[in-house]
Automatic annotation (TrEMBL):
It comes from the Eukaryota. InterPro entries: GPCR_Rhodpsn, GPCR_Rhodpsn_7TM, Olfact_rcpt, OR51/52/56-like. Keywords: Cell membrane, G-protein coupled receptor, Membrane, Olfaction, Receptor, Sensory transduction, Transducer, Transmembrane, Transmembrane helix. Belongs to the G-protein coupled receptor 1 family. The lineage of its organism: Eukaryota, Metazoa, Chordata, Craniata, Vertebrata. Residues 45-297 form the G-protein coupled receptors family 1 profile domain. It is found in: Cell membrane; Membrane. This is Olfactory receptor.
């Protein structure tokens, strides 16, 4: 079935071949339909959020500015992997050039690093808005917001550039078949003839530090938010705040749990967890959150709903 294209070369291959989700080839058509639907939702939802926020000056507040950046990052993240996934699942278009593979790797992992930073600053924004409302505008000034956004971007670049360099400079002299649906760095590094331990260890430690610190600060922010919420006298206000926080935590769980599980399983559970489960975990955290974020963070917000309704009416 794989034929002659899936060969073994004695030099760095000009092309890699992505197999999709190993063991689930019979479900590839349904996966293609599902991925296409989520990608369309991602593009429409995030583009609508971007358009509404940029056009309406009343929405030029810290929370909406961060949401605008998150929407842009989600579009880039999904666009870096989903079109190729759909091509693989629907028509078997599995080939990807060496340079395109590492470009895809860089963008998907850099945007995931940016995403976790944005979730952190949005949690901090909610903490300031709820726990220190009188100081909101004095704390989250345009300069502070720009500094946060630049820090998130620089952190992602600093993390991803060495990793991309280390993996791309490995010697690939064996199989050019990547057992994954996109150029995930550990799946590609496994094909190297030289020991990929240094890049894999760097990825594990770097991801653990970034995600671990972000999750710790997010948890601290929402703990303080919940304390403030339970001190509110109005039950309706409590329920509304709990509903908002609950939906935010759900989206974060759908992002962090599959993402970190895929990293640790690739390291510790290769012989325990089936390969198709490992690949599905890695696929889920780059496909589902970008589709849900504009709904949870955007459409559930009253100001954005009103502006979207007004925009559609005109």
């Amino acid at each position: 079935m794989m034929g002659t294209p899936y060969n073994h070369t004695m030099e760095t291959p000009a092309t890699f071949f992505l197999v999709g989700i190993p063991g689930l080839q019979s479900s590839h058509l349904w996966l293609a339909i599902s991925m296409s639907a989520m990608y369309i939702i991602t593009l429409l939802g995030n583009t609508l959020i971007l358009t509404i926020i940029l056009m309406d000056s009343t929405l030029h507040e810290p929370m909406f500015c961060f949401l605008c950046v998150l929407a842009a990052v989600d579009i880039v993240m999904a666009s870096s992997v989903v079109p190729k996934m759909v091509s693989i699942f629907s028509s078997g278009g599995s080939s990807i050039s060496f340079n395109a593979c590492f470009t895809q790797m860089y963008f998907v992992h850099a945007t995931t690093a940016m995403e976790t930073g944005l979730l952190l600053v949005m949690a901090f924004d909610r903490y300031v808005a709820i726990c220190k409302p009188l100081h909101y505008k004095s704390i989250l000034t345009p300069q502070v917001m720009l500094g946060m956004s630049m820090t998130i971007t620089i952190r992602a670049v600093i993390f991803m550039t060495p990793l991309s360099y280390m993996v791309s400079h490995l010697l690939f002299c064996g199989s050019n078949i990547v057992l994954h649906s996109y150029c995930e760095h550990m799946a590609v590094a496994k094909l190297a003839c030289t020991d990929p331990m240094s890049s894999s260890l760097y990825s594990l430690i770097g991801s653990s530090i970034i995600v671990g610190s972000d999750v710790a600060f997010i948890a601290a922010s929402y703990t303080l938010i919940l304390q403030a919420v339970f001190n509110l006298s109005s039950k309706n206000a409590q329920l509304k705040a709990l509903s908002t926080c609950g939906s935010h935590v759900l989206v974060m769980a759908l992002y962090y749990l599959p993402g970190m599980a895929s990293i640790y399983v690739a390291w510790l559970g290769q012989d325990i967890v089936p390969l198709h489960t490992q690949v599905l975990l890695a696929d889920l955290y780059v496909v589902i959150p970008p589709a849900l974020n504009p709904i949870i963070y955007g459409l559930r917000t009253k100001q954005i709903r009103e502006q979207i309704w007004s925009f559609l009416m005109h």
